[in-house]
Amino acid sequence: MDFNSHTDGVVRVAVALVNALSPGERRGRPFPRPRDLAGAGTEALRGAGYPDQAKLTENEAAELAGIAARLREVFEAVAAEDIDAAALKVNDLLTETRARPSLQRHDGEPWHLHFHGPDGTMAADWGASCATGLAIVLGGDFRDRLGVCTAPHCDRVYVDVSRNGTRRFCGTACQNRVKTAAFRAREAKGKVTP
């Protein structure tokens, strides 16, 4: 399932930033705020499909971590089935990051859509792009494709791009963890002790 190429990209970035920069739990273990925030933020952007992303400064990474925390609130609101709250949070981010779509051409590329103007900070520009991408998702038929992992002790977020829209976990590690626990519980229930 594709929203469109640029929207897909910035929604992937939103997921990557939330999962890399916001503390919580991951795969059954505590996930503290990264010590190397700049490295984690840079890796998240590069891993989400922007391999030419320059290394973030500590200040840029700290600003981006603040935006990631706000993006997390959107995913949490959707997971709680509170689309109104999610929409209001996205609207706040759109205003604060001064999101404004424009067609731009640079680096030998053809004209393409950017969701930020030319004069913002790196973090605000990514925030504007991520907020706009989430706004497109929330304003369409696929708002339920945003989610928070349902595995115990994991709060990483995801976007469900599967055909049937039934994803419940941030990744296969959590899915396998839950399936293994259910299998072991069934096995233990079936055993009779004298």
SSE topology sketch:
Elements lengths: L4 H17 L2 E3 L2 E3 L5 H11 L10 H22 L3 H14 L5 E3 L7 E3 L7 H17 L7 E3 L8 E3 L12 H19 L4
Antiparallel strand pairs: 1-2, 3-4, 5-6
Model description:
With 194 residues, this protein is mainly alpha-helical. It contains 6 helices and 6 strands. The protein has helices spanning 5-21, 37-47, 58-79, 83-96, 122-138, 172-190, and strands spanning 24-26, 29-31, 102-104, 112-114, 146-148, 157-159. The strands form 3 sheets. Strands 1-2 form a two-stranded antiparallel sheet. A two-stranded antiparallel ribbon has the order 3-4. A two-stranded antiparallel ribbon has the order 5-6. A hairpin with a 2-residue loop joins strand 1 and strand 2 (29-31). The longest helix has 22 residues, at 58-79.
